[in-house]
Protein backbone atom coordinates (compact mmCIF):
# COMPACT_ATOMS: atom_id res chain seq x y z
CA UNK A 1 0.00 0.00 0.00
CA UNK A 2 2.73 2.48 0.93
CA UNK A 3 4.64 1.53 -2.19
CA UNK A 4 1.62 2.36 -4.33
CA UNK A 5 1.21 5.69 -2.57
CA UNK A 6 4.90 6.49 -3.08
CA UNK A 7 4.68 5.59 -6.79
CA UNK A 8 1.57 7.75 -7.18
CA UNK A 9 3.22 10.75 -5.50
CA UNK A 10 6.39 10.28 -7.56
CA UNK A 11 4.31 10.22 -10.73
CA UNK A 12 2.43 13.41 -9.82
CA UNK A 13 5.46 15.44 -8.72
CA UNK A 14 7.79 14.41 -11.55
CA UNK A 15 5.13 14.64 -14.26
CA UNK A 16 4.15 18.16 -13.21
CA UNK A 17 7.76 19.32 -13.03
CA UNK A 18 8.70 17.62 -16.31
CA UNK A 19 5.67 19.15 -18.02
CA UNK A 20 6.69 22.56 -16.64
CA UNK A 21 10.12 22.17 -18.23
CA UNK A 22 8.62 21.15 -21.56
CA UNK A 23 6.15 24.05 -21.39
CA UNK A 24 9.03 26.42 -20.65
CA UNK A 25 10.74 25.26 -23.85
CA UNK A 26 7.50 25.53 -25.81
CA UNK A 27 6.76 29.05 -24.52
CA UNK A 28 10.22 30.25 -25.48
CA UNK A 29 10.08 28.60 -28.92
CA UNK A 30 6.67 30.20 -29.60
CA UNK A 31 8.07 33.57 -28.47
CA UNK A 32 5.39 34.12 -25.85
CA UNK A 33 6.18 37.37 -23.99
CA UNK A 34 8.13 36.46 -20.84
CA UNK A 35 6.29 39.00 -18.67
CA UNK A 36 3.03 37.06 -18.47
CA UNK A 37 2.24 35.38 -15.14
CA UNK A 38 2.40 31.82 -16.51
CA UNK A 39 5.88 32.32 -17.97
CA UNK A 40 7.11 33.95 -14.80
CA UNK A 41 5.72 31.11 -12.69
CA UNK A 42 7.39 28.50 -14.91
CA UNK A 43 10.69 30.34 -14.68
CA UNK A 44 10.49 30.49 -10.89
CA UNK A 45 9.65 26.80 -10.64
CA UNK A 46 12.40 25.60 -12.97
CA UNK A 47 15.23 28.15 -12.78
CA UNK A 48 17.06 26.10 -10.14
CA UNK A 49 17.63 23.37 -12.74
CA UNK A 50 17.64 25.23 -16.06
CA UNK A 51 20.04 28.07 -15.24
CA UNK A 52 22.95 25.78 -14.24
CA UNK A 53 22.29 23.61 -17.29
CA UNK A 54 22.39 26.71 -19.51
CA UNK A 55 26.01 27.27 -18.57
CA UNK A 56 26.81 23.96 -20.26
CA UNK A 57 24.00 23.61 -22.82
CA UNK A 58 23.28 26.80 -24.79
CA UNK A 59 20.10 27.49 -26.70
CA UNK A 60 20.22 26.96 -30.42
CA UNK A 61 17.84 28.13 -33.17
CA UNK A 62 15.26 29.39 -30.69
CA UNK A 63 15.12 26.12 -28.75
CA UNK A 64 15.90 26.12 -25.02
CA UNK A 65 17.93 22.91 -24.98
CA UNK A 66 18.74 23.30 -21.29
CA UNK A 67 15.03 22.98 -20.43
CA UNK A 68 14.65 19.94 -22.70
CA UNK A 69 17.68 18.26 -21.16
CA UNK A 70 16.23 19.18 -17.76
CA UNK A 71 12.98 17.43 -18.72
CA UNK A 72 14.93 14.35 -19.80
CA UNK A 73 16.95 14.38 -16.55
CA UNK A 74 13.71 14.73 -14.60
CA UNK A 75 12.29 11.71 -16.44
CA UNK A 76 15.51 9.80 -15.76
CA UNK A 77 15.42 10.52 -12.02
CA UNK A 78 11.72 9.66 -11.98
CA UNK A 79 12.33 6.27 -13.59
CA UNK A 80 15.33 5.51 -11.40
CA UNK A 81 13.33 6.26 -8.25
CA UNK A 82 10.30 4.38 -9.51
CA UNK A 83 12.24 1.24 -10.41
CA UNK A 84 14.28 1.45 -7.20
CA UNK A 85 11.01 1.40 -5.26
CA UNK A 86 9.86 -1.62 -7.23
CA UNK A 87 13.18 -3.37 -6.64
CA UNK A 88 14.59 -3.57 -10.16
CA UNK A 89 18.36 -3.99 -10.67
CA UNK A 90 19.17 -0.53 -12.03
CA UNK A 91 22.79 -1.18 -13.01
CA UNK A 92 21.96 -3.96 -15.47
CA UNK A 93 19.17 -2.04 -17.16
CA UNK A 94 20.57 1.49 -17.15
CA UNK A 95 20.77 1.86 -20.99
CA UNK A 96 17.11 0.82 -21.31
CA UNK A 97 16.18 3.32 -18.59
CA UNK A 98 18.01 6.09 -20.51
CA UNK A 99 15.94 5.34 -23.61
CA UNK A 100 12.72 5.08 -21.65
CA UNK A 101 13.45 8.48 -20.05
CA UNK A 102 13.39 9.98 -23.56
CA UNK A 103 10.02 8.36 -24.19
CA UNK A 104 8.64 9.59 -20.86
CA UNK A 105 9.74 13.17 -21.59
CA UNK A 106 8.22 12.93 -25.07
CA UNK A 107 4.99 11.61 -23.53
CA UNK A 108 4.92 14.63 -21.21
CA UNK A 109 5.25 16.90 -24.24
CA UNK A 110 2.45 15.18 -26.16
CA UNK A 111 0.19 15.24 -23.09
CA UNK A 112 0.94 18.94 -22.72
CA UNK A 113 -0.18 19.55 -26.31
CA UNK A 114 -3.32 17.50 -25.66
CA UNK A 115 -4.33 19.38 -22.52
CA UNK A 116 -3.46 22.78 -24.02
CA UNK A 117 -5.66 21.96 -27.02
CA UNK A 118 -8.57 20.91 -24.81
CA UNK A 119 -8.18 24.07 -22.72
CA UNK A 120 -7.99 26.16 -25.89
CA UNK A 121 -11.20 24.64 -27.26
CA UNK A 122 -13.07 25.08 -23.97
CA UNK A 123 -11.90 28.65 -23.49
CA UNK A 124 -12.80 29.55 -27.07
CA UNK A 125 -16.41 28.69 -26.23
CA UNK A 126 -16.53 30.05 -22.68
CA UNK A 127 -14.36 33.18 -22.78
CA UNK A 128 -12.49 33.77 -26.06
CA UNK A 129 -11.22 37.16 -24.88
CA UNK A 130 -9.45 35.80 -21.77
CA UNK A 131 -5.80 36.82 -21.44
CA UNK A 132 -4.70 33.17 -21.46
CA UNK A 133 -6.24 32.72 -24.93
CA UNK A 134 -3.52 34.88 -26.48
CA UNK A 135 -0.84 32.62 -25.02
CA UNK A 136 -2.68 29.43 -25.99
CA UNK A 137 -3.15 30.77 -29.50
CA UNK A 138 0.57 31.56 -29.79
CA UNK A 139 1.46 28.08 -28.56
CA UNK A 140 -1.03 26.13 -30.66
CA UNK A 141 -1.12 28.17 -33.87
CA UNK A 142 1.86 26.32 -35.42
CA UNK A 143 0.05 23.03 -34.82
CA UNK A 144 -3.51 24.12 -35.63
CA UNK A 145 -2.89 26.27 -38.73
CA UNK A 146 -1.75 23.38 -40.98
CA UNK A 147 -4.83 21.43 -39.88
CA UNK A 148 -7.05 24.44 -40.60
CA UNK A 149 -5.76 24.55 -44.17
CA UNK A 150 -6.69 20.89 -44.64
CA UNK A 151 -9.99 20.65 -42.77
CA UNK A 152 -13.15 22.34 -44.03
CA UNK A 153 -14.63 25.26 -42.12
CA UNK A 154 -18.12 24.24 -41.04
CA UNK A 155 -19.92 27.53 -40.63
CA UNK A 156 -17.53 28.98 -38.09
CA UNK A 157 -16.96 25.69 -36.28
CA UNK A 158 -13.23 24.96 -36.17
CA UNK A 159 -12.46 21.23 -36.39
CA UNK A 160 -8.69 21.66 -36.05
CA UNK A 161 -8.59 21.32 -32.23
CA UNK A 162 -10.56 18.09 -32.47
CA UNK A 163 -8.18 16.80 -35.14
CA UNK A 164 -5.19 17.77 -32.99
CA UNK A 165 -6.67 15.93 -30.01
CA UNK A 166 -7.12 12.82 -32.15
CA UNK A 167 -3.56 13.09 -33.49
CA UNK A 168 -2.09 13.51 -30.00
CA UNK A 169 -4.04 10.49 -28.79
CA UNK A 170 -2.68 8.44 -31.69
CA UNK A 171 0.82 9.63 -30.88
CA UNK A 172 0.35 8.64 -27.23
CA UNK A 173 -0.66 5.15 -28.36
CA UNK A 174 2.53 4.90 -30.45
CA UNK A 175 4.67 6.09 -27.53
CA UNK A 176 3.00 3.55 -25.23
CA UNK A 177 3.75 0.77 -27.74
CA UNK A 178 7.37 1.91 -28.07
CA UNK A 179 7.91 2.05 -24.32
CA UNK A 180 6.13 -1.26 -23.58
CA UNK A 181 9.10 -3.47 -24.63
CA UNK A 182 11.48 -1.27 -22.66
CA UNK A 183 9.32 -1.42 -19.54
CA UNK A 184 8.80 -5.18 -19.95
CA UNK A 185 12.56 -5.65 -20.01
CA UNK A 186 12.89 -3.66 -16.80
CA UNK A 187 10.49 -5.71 -14.70
From TrEMBL:
It comes from the Bacteria. Keywords: Membrane, Transmembrane, Transmembrane helix. One of its GO terms (cellular component) is membrane. The keyword Cytoplasm does not apply. The chain crosses the membrane at residues 7-27, 65-86, 98-123, 159-180. It holds the Pfam family CCB3_YggT. The keyword Transmembrane helix applies. This is YggT family protein.
Amino acid sequence: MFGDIALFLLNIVFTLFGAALVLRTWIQAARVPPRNPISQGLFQISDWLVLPLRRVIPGWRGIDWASLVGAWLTALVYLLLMFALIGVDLAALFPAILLNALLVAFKWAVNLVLWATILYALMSWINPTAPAMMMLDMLLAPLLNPLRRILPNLGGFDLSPLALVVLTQLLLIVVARLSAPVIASLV
